[in-house]
Design brief:
Strand order of the largest sheet: 8-9-10-11-20-16-15-14
Strand content: over 45%
Shape: globular
Number of strands: 20
């Protein structure tokens, strides 16, 4: 464990590696990330820079449009033009750990673009053992506008691409021969859950399950972004139908707790584990 990276553990077992200063090209919007993240049995449940989307970096925070700057990586969706290569990429720069241990950390970051700082972030990550086959990753990010004016957070959806309101917490999951099952407490399948609000959402692969739960009222208000067929991923939507304004000095806070389990959980099992980590 050092200033460049650390390994998170649950009951002595390594379950995730966090890299603070990855050597990445500007086009990928360099940022800290968690990869690999594994189940307690050691099954990897993240992917890093896969061939289909090189800018998908395990688990982290990524936003495609902060006042026109791309903190997501790759092309930018431009209204009436579509995905476009632009020289507008920002970077999240690790400043310091306020706390770091084997079961979590508190980190300070600067979001910079075009030579200036737009946001400062405090990121708090913690691991918790739940059962002999499941653990939880508690991930909170707080984004503070450090400019003198209002910043506007957008997404491809707010810029004219329906169904693409990604931006915020993002988990690129393990890709397998079969697409994973996705479900919530009362809905099943991508069509039923993508772009919808739900207290929790599960993604179940061949031998693993991830259960994502919004841990605050504001987080639960954000609809889920879900993909399974093209690639497996789950994220939040900070800007679903409208851009999200952040006034100078204001802070946006979101907290998502993810249960990482061995095996394919059913709806009742997923709900029971969520109740262990998130208060109703």
């Amino acid at each position: 464990m050092n200033e460049e990276s650390l390994v998170l553990r649950v009951a002595g077992r390594p379950v995730g590696r966090y890299l603070t200063r990855p050597a990445l090209p500007a086009r990928l919007s360099p940022r800290p990330y968690l990869h690999p993240v594994t189940t307690l049995a050691g099954t990897a449940v993240t992917e890093l820079s896969p061939a289909d989307h090189a800018h998908h970096l395990g688990v982290g925070v990524a936003v495609p449009d902060v006042e026109g700057h791309n903190f997501w990586g790759g092309r930018t969706y431009v209204r009436d033009r579509g995905p476009t290569e632009l020289d507008n990429h920002g970077a999240q720069r690790h400043t310091a750990f306020q706390l770091r241990d084997f079961d979590g950390f508190v980190e300070e970051l600067r979001w910079v673009a075009a030579g200036g700082e737009l946001l400062r972030e405090r990121r708090t990550v913690a691991t918790t053992g739940l059962t002999g086959s499941a653990w939880a990753l508690d991930f909170t990010f707080s984004l503070t506008n450090t400019t003198r004016g209002t910043l506007s957070i957008g997404s491809p959806a707010t810029n004219g691409r329906p169904g693409a309101a990604y931006g915020g917490f993002f988990w690129r999951a393990r890709k397998e021969a079969e697409a994973p099952r996705v479900f919530t407490a009362d809905a099943e399948g991508v069509t039923a859950v993508h772009g919808r609000r739900a207290d929790w959402l599960a993604l179940a692969g061949a031998t693993w399950t991830l259960v994502f739960a919004g841990a605050t009222t504001a987080t639960r208000h954000d609809p889920w972004f879900v993909r399974t067929a093209e690639y497996p991923a789950v994220g939040s939507s900070l800007a679903h139908e409208e851009r999200l304004p952040v006034a100078a000095g204001d802070t946006v806070v979101r907290r998502i707790v993810t249960v990482v389990a061995d095996g394919r959980l059913d709806r009742a099992e997923a709900a029971a584990l969520v109740r262990k980590v998130v208060s109703p």
